[in-house]
Amino acid sequence: MSTSVEQKVEVTETQEIVLNEKREYTEAVHSAVDEEHIAPTEEDWKTLPEVGDRIPLSAFLVVLIEFCERFTYYGLNGPFQNYLQQPLPDGFPAGNNPNGQPGALNKGQQTATALTTFFSFWCYITPIGGAIIADQYLGKYKTIVLFAVIYMVGLLILTLTSIPSAIANGSAFGGYIAAILIIGLGTGGIKANVSTLVAEQVQTRTPFVRTKKNGKRVIVTPQATYQQLFNMFYWGINAGSLSAIATTELEKNVGFWSAYLLPLCMFVPCLCIIIFGRKIYIQTPPRGSVIVEAAKVIYYSWKVPGGFEGTKPSNLVTSSPDLAAKATWDDVFVDELRRGLKACGIFCWFPLYWLCYSQMTNNLTSMAATMNTGNVPNDIIQNIDPLVLIIFIPIMDRLVYPFFRSIGFPLRPIFRITIGFLFAAAAMAYTAGIQALVYKSPPFYEYPSEGDTPNDISGGYIVISYALIALSEIFASITGLEYAYKKAPQSMKSIVMSLFLFSSAVSNILQFALVSVNFDPKLVWMYSGIAIAAFICAILIWIFHGNNDKTDVEQDAIGRDKEELDKYQQHKANVSEYEAEKGPL
């Protein structure tokens, strides 16, 4: 290897990426985005309202992809509890039997709840694999295409094994198990990357002042922009989830095969949008050894003076010159990683939140089956949740959040997450009360699931439970997605997002632990315990993480400008060239 190449990897030549941390923060927050985007002054911050930037067309296309995928996912998930729990009614389909619940496999409530919980667990643990493939090897777009094909295979298996002849010859249960394993793999790979892909379409990185046509001046901020974007993204999710209204009607009046065929047909437009829109999306290429790089930084933080601060190449120059020459990261990567790890600490509280949320798709569905719902299928009531979200997300995005920003009190992430947990606790406390009323109602009282008719209590009471959960999602779930993206290192967006989704998988483990009390007459105590746990979590989140809101804008500003990114990529290329000739540093 030539001397000139060796010189490229010398510390003095390659580690001048970020030498002054104060300059990094100051330039990131206050530099102008371009000639028309003037950085806000201190007076502007005090007097002008914060608003979001314009959302590009490519972001709307990605939201449409998510709409189609969620239409498929929730369309399948809606009938699953009845498909597993209830027996095949006389006069199949159930619509021909006024007193019959739609069903097929007759596995009972505990088995059905356990399997639907496993499916949810599987769907939220597989994003980790999809994230690693995207960030380290294929990139987000190619990973989404790959897992979409896998998803389609699972949909075909589920549909074909739910036809009446397959149910009659005993093939349906095995087909269901195979299908949920494949579908879970597919949806996990998509889920880890589609939310980061939509965020990458927005290029607002620093605040700037904009003068509107009416002459009013506002500050366009990344925080307000991402809040608006993820509200829109989550609106698309819940619009798609309304597919369960159609599929639960189909299961009752036609059969389960038709309920699964509809989502299969809807997935085709999803594939088309993914493929035909490939030239429109802004795509970030995979970084390569990002996981190894992050692991090295974490390891060295225990070995060098100063912890994470000491692992910055600008500090290693003086403390550990030998390590500085080997570092393939820069100062900004260390700041990003530290910020990302701090965000992951918030995610540790979310399993309790998702435990509240998951009651909608299994135990609340079973509760509705023990109440008078008239001609309304018991599992269609869960669609109250997305209906409330579709109504209230635009209200929050267009009225409530802008109002608080206009009066100088923007609702920062930790505050919103805390409110979300409080709403979730209220939902479970209310549900415990309704379950107690069910147990006090004739004719089966504390054992309503053992009767062939529902207890004498209106199913309308359960609507409030779904509405409270929906409000909690606006504050906790949407903010969690936004927080995961904003705080993740640029090269690890999918991985950090998958860790946020993984918190839902952990909640499913907790749900498994509660299977032993998922039966009458213990459900009141189960709901009460979950409510108390969620309330305590809300208080602890604010105590331990509330101060993060004070540095939210400053932390979001950590990043590279184009010149620094070019230096960074060149340094990595130089190190790779050196290692190829002389072996690992």
Automatic annotation (TrEMBL):
It comes from the Eukaryota. The chain crosses the membrane at residues 144-167, 173-198, 257-277, 413-439, 459-483, 495-517, 523-544. One of its GO terms (cellular component) is plasma membrane. One of its GO terms (molecular function) is dipeptide transmembrane transporter activity. Its main location: membrane. It is a multi-pass membrane protein. It is found in: Membrane. Keywords: Membrane, Transmembrane, Transmembrane helix, Transport. Belongs to the major facilitator superfamily. Proton-dependent oligopeptide transporter (POT/PTR) (TC 2.A.17) family. This is PTR2-domain-containing protein. It comes from Hesseltinella vesiculosa. The lineage of its organism: Eukaryota, Fungi, Fungi incertae sedis, Mucoromycota, Mucoromycotina.
